[in-house]
Amino acid sequence: MTSTQDLRVAAELAPPRAFDTACRMVVDYLSRMVPLDAWVVTRVADGQQTMLVTTDSGYGLTPGQTAAWSSSMCQYMVAGAAPRIVPDTRAVPDLARIASEASAHGIEVGTYVGTPIVTGEGSLWGTVVGMNRRPVDPDVVDQEPLLDLLSSLLSSVLEADTAAVDSARALERAVSDAETDALTGLLNRRGWERWLEREDERFRRFGDPASVVTLDLDDLKVVNDTEGHDAGDRHLRHCAAVLRSTIRSTDPLARLGGDEFALVAQVGVDDAQRLVERLRDALDSAGVPCSIGAAPFTVAGGFPGACADADALMYSDKRARRGGHRGVPGPRHQPPDLPTA
């Protein structure tokens, strides 16, 4: 490409401020200029590579599909152990090995193209990936300047969009009285639902890791019946204080009504499970034990799906605790298989 063409591409793709819109424009543009069987923008977080935007004619890839980063060809590109454009994956041993493993499952990756998307601080955020079932003409390597330009544009849009979202969140944390539970000072159900509604689109856009945790305070009715409702209110406030002291201040925490609480831990699955265990230990030690369920946010299911899964696991935990068995907060959700790239 000439420098004039570079400027034209930049002018065409730079204006969108919403990151997902820019991603869609980039993969659509690449599918026209460098027609491979698939172009994908992925998010790399929590040891997983999640597809956010896809254009596909050969693999059946869809947004939300996830694979382990350790099985991705992109790990070698990011580490500098493989070129950004590999017309024939058989020419690079690490990529050839992964391609052979994928072929055993009926997934052919003859060509690999990849470039990193980085944050404003320079850390890896995700990748732009192209794949073709068969090796392509070696001249495709001439497209590396275009690939670098487009990934740089996405990095710039990501930084601007992230800053805008952070500013909006800061304003939204000044919650109105109508969204605050008067007894505990936490979000009430209305505030919780409004938070989920606002954030669902943002988390889908960026593919950020998160888990919903729901809690049901054990034996509140017993406290109310034996010691009175003032004691029950103190019990609820004490539970809220323990929860608040155990989670990060930026994680939303709500009392949904009665003896139900909920929060969103903005971390990956492993860290969320460790948080659940810390919560359980802290609540038990403070004399306010709770039944707990936790489920991860996914691009496909969003927060509605995570809330439904967490509720089901919390009620399962409650039944197990009533039966004298300590419940399991939530299983590790295994991601669906997808072509490694």
Automatic annotation (TrEMBL):
One of its GO terms (molecular function) is diguanylate cyclase activity. InterPro entries: Diguanylate_Cyclase (IPR050469), GAF (IPR003018), GAF-like_dom_sf (IPR029016), GGDEF_dom (IPR000160), Nucleotide_cyclase (IPR029787), Rev_trsase/Diguanyl_cyclase (IPR043128). Its EC number is 2.7.7.65. CDD domains: GGDEF. SUPFAM superfamilies: GAF domain-like, Nucleotide cyclase. It holds the Pfam family GGDEF. Residues 321-341 are annotated as: Disordered. Keywords: Nucleotidyltransferase, Transferase. SMART domains: GAF, GGDEF. Residues 332-341 have a biased composition (Pro residues). Residues 208-332 form the GGDEF domain. This is GGDEF domain-containing protein. It comes from Actinomycetospora aeridis.
